[in-house]
Design goal:
mainly alpha
């Protein structure tokens, strides 16, 4: 601790403070004694309360202890009452029973009134809970003693209704008790459903009873003030109303005739009325309850229409009702109700689209069957999906609804850009699914797929065309925005520059969006937010175009003319899109054109009757053309993706040529020539240069292996010589470059494999030649003061010498006594230890000498 004052001065200050504290305490104690004497003389003095430290606290607070005791007391009294009713009931006469239970019940229900007057609320709650349990026991006792032959379910229904009414009246009368009213709500869930079960009316009657109960729960939830009462009423409404809704849906779906579907429809419409009434009166949960009401309405009307149309048109019937529901949200209603109805319509449309999705998937993946027998004829569609004929109709209808929803509904749950993208994808799906749904022959089916690809590419390239048409189509649907600028004050159509275009290069709508109100009319809008919808539409259209293009290409493999037609059209579309588009769409279209060109080259080679390994050679025309095009484009953003896509053709060509190794070597060599030609360009030099070296080396090795050459130097020297040449040029350009970087890889490429081969070679020419070559490398490294040649060559010479001397060393060791090698090793260690310091200095000098080398 660091003192501010000198220790002696600080000690005097502390003593002075302590003296003052003692003096003050003596004054306070004297004052306290005088006050106690005065209070005792007056006769009203309380006993002195000992002081408690601030951290001390009672183990349990008085309210919590009181509640625990009251709860335990209520539980014990309840157990006693139940035991009395069940065990001791038969020992008393009817009068005694009535008197005992009645007196106890009246006492238990009346006592809380007295307790509340004394503000003993917790005690009153416990006694009231006991009274409520006693009323249940009274009902049970009445059934056992007075009405033993009554139907148990019917009696329970009546008893529950009476108890609910009694508890509600009691709770309203007392007012301050929290248990009677929630208990009345719980008991009120039983009378009507139990009465329906006792009447034996079937699921319809039970569903109506639960619906009526749900209506009562909704009314209670709307007028009740207590949180517990509202929560229980809402829970009861959800359970009973949900049961009615599920029952109505099951009965509606099971109905086989229009007459049989009327009763379920009425039940569902009544459920919808209850839900919509609750949504109208309760804005907090309006969206959720209105969604349930909308779904019930669609299920009711769609269930009737389903019985009037063929089975394949059942889903369109429900979809028609959902579309009508979407049109009905133009009425004046709370925003939450409109949102819920729109959400219900959207859920039905989503379910319909999912129902039709397998048909679209079959239309896209079915053409893959042509891969099993290329040019063997159109594939046979073995899978027949139910309702496939109406799938395109369903998809198209959902697309129209999605286009209309943002313009029809002021509070549409789906944002407008997302709705338009989904509508575009569904429209494309409807077109693609049409051939599979209608079982069209090969020609028309291929034409439909190609047309879908072309249309999607047009939208991807120029999304502004679609954005310009849609506002005109929906101009009468959405009311004008109050903040929209007057006519003539906006931007002139078609004057946006290409710099502000989306990924497809489109100029966007006049207001900078995909349609509807201008961006200025939307709070918080920005220029980037205005471009995002255009980009979303372009991206969606691009994905659709790629999927349909892949399906068309596979479908075209059914016959030779179809193959050339499909691939030719796809290549033309890709080139046209790459020429007209901008950004990502241009790059993807260009790469797709390269893929299509590869397919055309392969198909042409196959049609010409070339064997498989020659087809690989023919495919190299694609990388050659891409390299020439890349040289023409220079640093254009499309150049690199096109060349990379074309480079992916090389592994395919190699795989096709594998059965004929000389052709594999030729393919690799030609690919290396293309890579070397590409490496001439400065922007491609690093990557293409390494690729060319690898391809040339691989071509040499494959050619040697095909010729039966097993000498490792034949494989390594073609790598070492160019590597050393490159290293020499590197050292001339950069004298400070390390010899390990310049010469290490080239020397190791030959020395290491040759050394391994020499150690396993029993003859002498290879070790001799390798030793001479390594010695030359070592001398060159010492002469030129290069570390890598010196160390690699020296290590190789040492290992070769060890290999050659090893047999003689073994003979000498075998001839020596067994004790001599350990003795020699010990002497060597003694000599090294004695001259350790000198050896250390020698090693340090050697290290410094090597360090001065490059």
């Amino acid at each position: 601790m660091e003192n501010v004052l000198p220790p002696a001065e600080e000690l005097r200050l502390i003593d002075r403070e302590l003296v003052q504290l003692d003096s003050r305490r003596a004054q306070l104690m004297h004052r306290r004694a005088w006050l106690l004497t005065a209070l005792r003389a007056a006769g009203a003095g309380p006993a002195p309360v000992p002081a408690r430290s601030p951290g001390a606290a009672a183990e349990t607070s008085p309210p919590s202890a009181q509640n625990i005791l009251l709860t335990l007391g209520g539980i014990l009294l309840t157990i006693a009452a139940v035991a009395f009713t069940l065990v001791s009931w038969g020992r008393m006469g009817i009068g005694g029973r009535a008197v005992v239970l009645g007196a106890v019940t009246v006492t238990a229900l009346g006592t809380p009134l007295l307790l509340l007057r004394r503000r003993l609320v917790s005690t009153a709650e416990s006694v009231a809970a006991l009274g409520l349990v006693l009323t249940v026991l009274d009902a049970y006792a009445l059934k056992r003693a007075v009405l033993p032959g009554t139907d148990a379910v019917a009696y329970t229904a009546v008893a529950a209704g009476v108890l609910a009414a009694a508890w509600a009246a009691y709770g309203r009368a007392v007012g301050r008790l929290r248990l009677p009213l929630p208990g009345a709500v719980v008991a009120g869930q039983l009378p009507l459903p139990l009465w329906a079960l006792s009447a034996g009316g079937g699921p319809e009657v039970t569903a109506w009873a639960t619906l009526a109960t749900a209506g009562l729960d909704v009314a209670i939830a709307l007028v009740a003030r207590g949180t517990a009462v509202r929560a229980l009423a809402v829970t009861g409404a959800v359970v009973t109303g949900g049961w009615s809704l599920l029952t109505g849906v099951w009965l509606s779906v099971s109905a086989g005739s229009p007459a049989a579907s009327v009763v379920p429809a009425l039940l569902l419409l009544a459920t919808a009325a209850v839900s919509l009434g609750a949504a109208w009166r309760a804005p907090a949960a309006a969206a959720a309850t209105a969604t349930v009401g909308g779904l019930a309405t669609v299920a009711a009307t769609g269930g009737v229409l389903r019985t009037l149309v063929p089975a394949d048109w059942a889903v369109p019937a429900y979809l028609l009702c959902a579309a009508a529901l979407l049109g009905a949200v133009r009425v004046r209603a709370p925003r939450g109700v409109l949102t819920g109805l729109a959400a219900a319509s959207g859920l039905v449309q989503l379910a319909s689209a999912l129902w039709a999705a397998p048909v679209v998937l079959l239309a896209l993946t079915g053409p893959a069957a042509t891969l099993e027998d290329v040019w063997g004829g159109p594939p046979v569609q073995d899978v027949v999906l139910p309702g496939a004929v109406t799938a395109p109709v369903v998809l198209a209808a959902v697309a129209v609804a999605l286009w209309a929803a943002p313009r029809l509904v002021p509070a549409a749950p789906l944002p407008r850009p997302a709705a338009e993208c989904a509508a575009l994808a569904l429209t494309w799906s409807a077109v693609v699914a049409a051939p599979a749904a209608l079982a069209l022959p090969l020609g028309p089916a291929l034409a439909v797929h190609l047309a879908a690809t072309a249309a999607a590419l047009v939208v991807a390239v120029r999304p502004s065309l679609l954005a310009a048409l849609l506002p005109a189509a929906g101009a009468g649907w959405s009311p004008p925005s109050p903040t929209a600028p007057p006519a003539g004050e906006g931007h002139a159509p078609g004057h946006a520059s290409d710099d502000t275009a989306g990924p497809g290069g489109g100029t966007g709508s006049p207001d900078g969006t995909t349609g509807g109100a201008p961006a200025a009319a939307r709070p918080g809008s920005s220029s980037r937010a205005a471009v995002d919808p255009v980009r979303a539409v372009a991206g969606t259209a691009l994905v659709c175009a790629l999927l349909s293009a892949a399906s068309a290409a596979l479908l075209g493999l059914a016959t030779r003319p179809a193959t050339f037609t499909a691939l030719g059209v796809l290549v033309a579309l890709g080139v046209a899109a790459a020429t007209a588009a901008r950004g990502l769409v241009r790059i993807v279209a260009a790469c797709a054109a390269v893929v299509g060109t590869t397919g055309l080259a392969a198909a042409t080679a196959v049609a010409a009757g070339l064997p498989g390994h020659r087809i690989g050679l023919a495919l190299l025309a694609v990388p050659v053309a891409a390299a020439l095009l890349g040289a023409r484009l220079g640093r254009h953003p499309v150049a690199l993706p096109v060349e990379a896509t074309a480079a992916a053709v090389v592994p395919i060509a190699v795989a096709l040529a594998v059965p004929h190794p000389p052709t594999v070597a030729l393919v690799l060599a030609l690919a290396g020539v293309v890579a070397a030609g590409t490496a001439v360009r400065a922007e491609r030099r690093p990557l293409a240069g390494y690729a060319a070296a690898v391809l040339f080396v691989a071509a040499t090795w494959v050619r040697l292996a095909a010729s039966g050459v097993a000498v490792p130097e034949a494989y390594t020297l073609p790598v070492t010589v160019p590597a050393l040449a490159v290293g020499f040029l590197r050292r001339r350009r950069d004298p400070n470059a390390s010899s390990w970087v310049a010469y290490g890889p080239g020397l190791a490429a030959t020395l290491v494999p040759s050394l391994l081969a020499a150690w396993g070679d029993p003859d002498w020419p290879r070790p001799l030649l390798l030793g001479l070559a390594a010695l030359g490398v070592t001398l060159a490294g010492a002469r030129l003061r290069l570390r890598a040649p010196l160390l690699l060559g020296g290590l190789t010479v040492a290992l070769v010498a060890l290999h050659e001397l090893a047999p003689y060393v073994v003979q000498v060791v075998d001839a020596l006594p067994r004790w001599l090698p350990p003795a020699l090793a010990g002497l060597l260690l003694l000599a090294v230890g004695a001259t350790y310091e000198r050896r250390l200095r020698d090693a340090r000098r050697l290290r410094e000498a090597l360090g001065r080398m490059r």
